[in-house]
Design a protein that fits this description.
With 190 residues, the chain is mainly alpha-helical. It contains six helices and two strands, in the order αααααββα. It has a two-stranded antiparallel sheet. A hairpin with a 2-residue loop joins strand 1 and strand 2. The two termini are 21 Å apart.
Length: 190
């Protein structure tokens, strides 16, 4: 496979991953589909960092658009375009790593929830691991099923950002080959 086709494949794969990251981050603002928690400020701290929206979303989507252009013939499908795709892919790696870090923190600290009458993060800095001990999830009385909600969405962000890091790193290598060897555009018969 030539470097131009590889760029197109990577970009087409990055589009849905960036979209999933953006959607997951937006949904995390509305636990249980209710806006009252966002209005009252009862949102998990890591959601406010917007790792999925900014990092895994926009910082990956913009490089994906450019990387897609390097796979086509024309102004970006040349050695200089492939060189620039290395820098754009590096921005994608940085964004995906930010999303990954925020997702890890979100899973490690657990959700902000109401325990008895107090809003707190009951699983943060705890000796017990709430991810493996689901009997402890009942301590969160509001929002309903917040633990499962946070685990599902932060785990999705973790998976998508991992794939984004891998794909952007592959594009950096592909861009290097495209810069050194060319983009294998069809030159016709000799």
């Amino acid at each position: 496979m030539c470097t131009g086709k590889c760029s197109r494949c990577i970009a087409v794969t990055l589009y849905p991953l960036a979209l999933i990251s953006i959607i997951c981050n937006i949904v995390l603002f509305f636990p249980g589909g209710d806006i009252k928690y966002a209005k009252d400020g009862h949102i998990t701290e890591e959601v406010k960092y917007m790792g999925g929206l900014v990092g895994g979303g926009l910082m990956v989507l913009l490089p994906a658009l450019y990387i897609h252009l390097t796979g086509t013939q024309g102004c970006c499908g040349n050695r200089c375009g492939m060189f620039l795709s290395i820098a754009f892919a590096a921005v994608g790696v940085a964004g995906a790593l930010y999303s990954f870090s925020v997702a890890v923190l979100g899973l490690q600290n657990g959700p902000l929830c109401k325990v008895l009458l107090i809003w707190t993060t009951p699983f943060k800095n705890s000796d017990r691991n709430y991810l493996t001990d689901d009997t402890w999830w009942g301590s969160c009385t509001e929002p309903k099923n917040i633990v499962q909600f946070n685990i599902g969405l932060f785990a999705t962000l973790l998976a998508t950002s991992s794939l984004e890091v891998i794909l952007c790193a592959i594009q950096m290598i592909n861009g290097l080959f495209g810069c050194l060897c060319g983009t294998c555009t069809d030159k016709g018969p000799l």
